[in-house]
Amino acid sequence: MYAREFPVLTTTHSEYLFIYTTTYMCLYINSTIFEKDLDNHLKNRCNARPRELPKCHSLNVNCTLPLSQEELEFQKNIFSHQNLHVQPWLARVRLDELDKEDLESVISKVSSAFDANVKSIPMEKLTHPSAEKKRQYISNTKHLDQLSSLIAHMEKNGMLTDKTACFAEFGAGKGDLSAFVKRALNEEDGEATYLLIDRKSVRNKADQALLGHLENKSRVQRQMIDIKDLDLSKVDCVADNDKKIVAMSKHLCGCATDMTLKCLMNYVQNEKSKGHSEPTRGIIIALCCHQICRYEMYPNQEYLKSINISKVEFERMCKMTSWATCKNSKNKGSNEDVEGDDDNKHAISDDDDNSDETANHFSGRDSKEREAIGFKCKRVIDTGRVKYLEQFGFDVKLVYYVDLATSLENCALIAVPRKH
């Protein structure tokens, strides 16, 4: 925190005088605060201020393996994700610096794992009437296409049959997906509970709309926490009732998906130990940003062993997933409206790794070949997630819920409790 001098115009006996007053730069955001307001701002007003840890916080509870000391130190800056700091352990993975033999080894293992484990994935682009009502009012429909299809898949898989469920949106942002779910449920008496989970504060939230306009309001809780630290069983709107959970997300980047699955299965195990045989109604997650997956956070280590992928090879495979999408991101016009388009929002761009679209690329492959390899890498990673949930009694599938013209990140994971 440091002081700066700013002139403030005041009036004394009809004469304007410049009087200098001390202001301070906020510790948490790039904003200056007058000295008289500083204490109140830091304690009560700043949305980025540190808060007392909630009772649902359990440090790194949803990480599969212990984190390195480097990563633990990085975490201490709780605003690093807001400032878009590149995680150093991801930046160090350089495919263009690998020996050809090492690169070919990873590609070969990915191809073998894909052929042996990845099932055919159907294209199921659906629409839901409650979402389609908005189509005539918007010009860019990519965001709507995705939401409409996700809602329709939720209905198709029985996730909207219980209006009293707790709909938990992970990586919620503004809460758009929850808002569309509320319309699809057509609540009559505020029956549903909405839990919005995100690690940062956002503007223009849908929270008030989720409460509804009826006399009896829906219950809405926004929990600001990193998913890696979330004990779902201790969240207020989950702990004080027996509502079943419907977990959902439209954009859950890389390791956030893995930690969400771990979080949910920790919750399932905890509830089953209490005699609750089916604590969830379903899970639907639109998968994306595999390039920022983390070995220590990937939930199915046994699967990686079975396909003979080491930690180093996993990191390289994750980096290689960007081959599937980064060509598209470079071809986008600078003025194109890409709201709702999740392709490469978090690509720590592989510019050096993928800059040459010709056969002169360091891998010796042209862009089409690399794109195919990138998609194989994504689906190999996703298949491990499928197998992980199956271990806990879920029927799980991958579907392409929108076409590639809508989003290159067009694959969704859908899981429902297995019927006995």
Structure description:
The chain has 420 residues and is of the alpha/beta class. The chain has helices at 35-45, 69-75, 88-91, 100-117, 129-132, 142-156, 176-185, 207-211, 236-239, 255-273, 301-306, 311-320, 326-330, 351-354, 367-390; strands spanning 3-12, 15-25, 32-34, 166-170, 193-198, 219-224, 245-253, 280-288, 394-400, 411-417. 35% of the residues lie in helices and 17% in strands. The chain has a 7-stranded mixed beta sheet with strand order 6-5-4-7-8-10-9, sandwiched between helices. It has a 3-stranded antiparallel beta sheet with strand order 1-2-3. Helix 4 packs across helix 15. Residues 1-20, 332-341 and 347-352 have low confidence and may be disordered.
Notable traits:
10 strands; alpha/beta; 420 residues; disordered N terminus; seven-stranded mixed beta sheet; three-stranded antiparallel beta sheet; 35% helix; single chain
Walk me through the topology.
Blueprint lengths: L2 E10 L2 E11 L6 E3 H11 L23 H7 L12 H4 L8 H18 L11 H4 L9 H15 L9 E5 L5 H10 L7 E6 L8 H5 L7 E6 L11 H4 L5 E9 L1 H19 L6 E9 L12 H6 L4 H10 L5 H5 L20 H4 L12 H24 L3 E7 L10 E7 L3
Parallel strand pairs: 4-5, 4-7, 5-6, 7-8
Antiparallel strand pairs: 1-2, 2-3, 8-10, 9-10
Helix pairs in contact: 4-15
- Write the H/E string, N to C: EEEHHHHHHEHEHEHEHEHHHHHEE
Mean pLDDT, rounded to whole units?
Answer: 86
Give the low-pLDDT segments: 1-20, 332-341, 347-352
Strand element count: 10
Gyration radius, in Å: 24 Å
Main sheet, how many strands, which sense, barrel?
A: 7 strands, mixed
Shape: globular
Portion in helices: 25-40%
Strand content: 15-25%
Termini, distance in Å?
A: 60 Å
Q: Structural class of the secondary structure composition?
A: alpha/beta
Strand order of the largest sheet: 6-5-4-7-8-10-9
Q: If helices are DSSP runs of H or I spanning 4 or more residues, what is the number of helices? A: 15
